[in-house]
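Dear H.,

Thanks for agreeing to be a second pair of eyes. The structure we're designing against is below in C-alpha cell form, covering all 330 positions.
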C-alpha cells in the first residue's frame, strides 16, 4: 500500500457540559479563536465548537461537544489523558504562568520532565491540559494566532502538541501506532509515577511537537469513566480525500473495524478504535472552515453543512442559544 505518512495531529475533541463557560474559557482565558460554531453531526442536539488559530488550520484545532448532562470524569486507563497546546518559546510559558494565576486557573508550575518546558493546568471542568514550549521544535510548524485575540500574538497558542494516551497494555497500542499508522518510536522519558514504565514517544510526518504521541502504560488504574472534562478522540492529518481512500483500504486490510470514509463537509474522516479502546480519527486537511463563512466572520453564526440546512429551524429550536456576536474588534 503506497501510503503517505500521517502529517501529525489534526484535532482533539473533548466533552463539555457548558458551552457558554467553555467558550469564555477557551477564547477569553486561553485566547483561541472560535472558528466554527456547528453541531455534532451524529447528534444534532449537541453543539460542536472548534477553537484554533486564526483560521482553523489543521493541527491547531481543539474541539468540544456540549453534553449538558455529562457526569463527572473518573480518570484512568484507556484514555487520552493529556492534551498539550504549543506556544512559541520558554519566555511565553513565563507569560502564561502569570496569566493563569491572574485568571485563577490552577496549574502545576513549569516543569521539564518531558524534555521540553511544560506548564500543566486544568480548565473549569477538570480538562487535563498543558502548555508546551516550541523553543527547540524542528518538526511540524505551528499556526498563526488570531490578531484579535486577548492574548498578545507573540505569546499566543500556535497549535496542538503531543497527546498522551494512557493504557494498561502499551504494546498493543504501540503496534497500531507503528505497524498500522506508520509512527516511529524515537525516545522515552521517565514516568512521573513511581514504579511505572517510561513514557514512549512516537513521531510521524515531520515529527516534533506537532507530530508526537506519548504512550503511558499504567498498571495501577481502573478504566476511565468519561464525562465532562474528558477527551472523546484524537485525529491525525491526512493530505486529501484520495489519500484517505487509501487509508480506508489499509485499515480494512488490517481487519480493524472502522467507519469507512465519512463526509464532515469541513474535512473527510475515518474512525476506528485501537486495542485499548481509544478512538482514533484520520481527517483530511481540507476543505477547511472557510467553506461556508468568510475569514472575518468565522464562528459568529451557527454553521450547518449543506446536508443539514433543510433542518436548520428544527436544529436551532433544539439548541440553547449561544450568542457569540461580532468579534472582529478587540
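And this is the sequence the design step returned. I haven't edited it by hand at all.
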Amino acid at each position: 500500500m503506497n501510503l503517505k505518512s500521517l502529517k501529525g495531529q489534526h484535532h482533539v475533541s473533548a466533552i463539555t457540559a457548558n458551552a457558554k463557560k467553555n467558550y469564555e474559557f477557551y477564547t477569553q482565558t486561553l485566547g483561541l479563536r472560535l472558528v466554527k460554531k456547528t453541531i455534532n453531526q451524529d447528534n444534532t442536539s449537541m453543539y460542536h465548537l472548534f477553537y484554533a488559530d486564526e483560521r482553523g488550520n489543521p493541527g491547531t484545532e481543539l474541539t468540544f461537544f456540549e453534553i449538558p448532562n455529562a457526569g463527572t470524569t473518573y480518570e484512568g486507563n484507556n484514555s487520552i489523558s493529556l492534551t498539550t497546546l504549543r506556544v512559541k518559546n520558554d519566555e511565553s510559558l513565563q507569560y502564561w504562568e502569570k496569566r493563569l494565576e491572574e485568571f485563577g486557573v490552577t496549574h502545576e508550575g513549569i516543569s521539564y520532565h518531558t524534555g521540553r518546558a511544560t506548564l500543566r493546568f486544568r480548565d473549569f471542568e477538570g480538562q487535563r491540559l498543558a502548555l508546551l514550549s516550541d523553543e527547540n521544535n524542528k518538526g511540524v510548524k505551528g499556526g498563526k494566532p488570531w490578531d484579535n485575540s486577548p492574548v498578545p500574538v507573540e505569546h499566543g497558542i500556535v497549535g496542538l502538541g503531543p497527546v498522551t494516551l494512557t493504557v494498561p497494555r502499551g504494546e498493543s497500542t504501540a503496534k497500531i501506532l507503528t505497524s498500522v499508522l506508520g509512527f516511529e518510536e524515537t525516545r522515552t522519558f521517565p514516568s512521573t509515577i513511581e514504579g511505572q514504565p517510561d513514557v514512549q514517544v512516537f513521531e510521524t510526518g515531520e515529527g516534533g511537537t506537532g507530530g508526537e504521541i506519548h504512550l503511558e502504560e499504567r498498571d495501577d488504574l481502573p478504566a476511565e469513566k468519561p464525562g465532562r472534562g474528558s477527551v472523546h478522540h484524537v485525529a491525525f492529518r491526512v493530505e486529501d480525500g484520495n489519500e484517505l481512500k487509501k487509508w480506508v483500504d489499509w485499515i480494512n486490510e488490517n481487519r480493524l473495524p472502522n467507519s469507512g470514509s465519512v463526509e464532515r463537509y469541513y474535512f473527510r474522516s475515518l474512525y476506528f478504535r485501537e486495542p485499548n479502546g481509544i478512538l482514533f480519527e484520520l481527517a483530511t486537511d481540507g476543505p477547511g472552515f472557510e467553506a461556508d463563512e468568510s475569514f472575518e466572520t468565522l464562528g459568529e453564526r451557527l454553521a450547518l453543512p449543506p446536508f443539514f440546512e433543510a433542518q436548520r429551524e428544527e436544529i436551532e429550536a433544539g439548541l440553547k442559544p449561544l450568542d457569540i456576536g461580532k468579534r472582529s474588534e478587540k
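Two observations from my side: The radius of gyration is 19 Å. The longest helix spans residues 90-102.

Warmly,
E.
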